[in-house]
Here is the input.
Amino acid sequence: MLVLYSGVVAAALYAVFGASFPGLAAVPYAWAPMVSAGVTVWLCGESIRDWLGQLQNLRVGLHWYLAGIGIMMIGTELETIVGVLLGGDAVVPYAPFRDYVFTFAVTLFVAGALEELGWRGFLQPRLQQRFSALQASLAIGIIWGLWHVPMILTGTGSFTVFWEYMLNVTVQSVILGWLYNNTEGALPVVMLTHASHNMPRVGNVTGNIPAVFDILSGDALFYLVCALVLTLYAGSQTLTREGTLPSVPGKFEERLPQRENPTDRWPDLSDWLWFSLVPSYCLFWESRCRHLPLVRRQQLLCLRIQRLSTFRTTAWIQLSRRQLPNSKASLQLWLCNHWSEKFCK
Here is the structure.
């Protein structure tokens, strides 16, 4: 449906405007992910109201809005920040204030952010029923980038070198997937984050800029680092520390076989990294608390291990090669007993 709609609209625009058409004329093309998702939901006999209901999920905590917008703004301004720290001169603001308001409003309400009804609002939860959240996010990022090719060829919008742009949107897709999963499918958070990325930069620096930015732009580099850190921190399976996934909007989940429980899996890189750090953490903490009585040290260590515990029960059991009940409570109890006896002596 996406290919069909996008192809028809692109052909119509080319017939009317030729190889180069005005930016606002591309708005119907920008609606392709949203329209395609809506039509697919309708054709499959699902609930369009439930699918659009994701837009009402506003109360998810202010910190998620700040996290998404902050990541995008820091990425956009990274070259300026580095240039100023190295002694360069910055021009602020880089564009007139009305340009920021106009760009943000158009992206959020007319085009750009509306794509998220198709990318995160439709594809993300459905792909996650068959693949890991990281795989789903990477696949959406590639589709997202390739879908922009007609706009790149016609010069609509501001695009960098193609390979850099593909890397940029792919790692952005991981960040947006992380936001979507951790907010239980709150599309407003994702849409505002998307719109903030499309804003003009606030400052422009003159002077010596590190050569690395000649190879890879500051925003692409920052988003790549963020995507790697978030994957290691939250785990590639669900991109959440709790190991949960948002429900599939509509009734499509009844037609798909449910993916295996996130705990019943082989350990990923983040599991190995976390488990390898537990003994080091215990040793470091115990060395700082030798002045406390033994019982008190064991109690505090148990409390800290409980706070560090996550959903990775089966992975830890496999790594430790011990037969333990498959439950978080049992894992916490074993960790408390094992590490407190081993290091608090």
Observations:
- The mean pLDDT is 78.
- The chain has 17 helices and two strands.
- Strands lie at 89-91, 204-206.
